Amino acid sequence: MSKPSQPSPLGDFIRSHRERLQPEQAGLPNGSRRRAKGLRREEVAALCGISPTWLTWIEQGRTQSVSAATLAALASTLQLSRAETDYLFNLAGQKNPQHSSAAANPEAEQMLAAATAHISRPAYVLDALWQVPAWNAEAGALFTGWLDQPGSKNLLQFMFCHPLAAQLVDDWPTRARRMVAEFRADTSALQLEAATTLIAGLREASATFDELWRQQDVLGREGGERVFNHAHQGRLSYRQLTLRLAHAPALKLVMLL
Question: What's the CA gap between 200 and 210, in Å, rounded?
Answer without folding.
Answer: 9
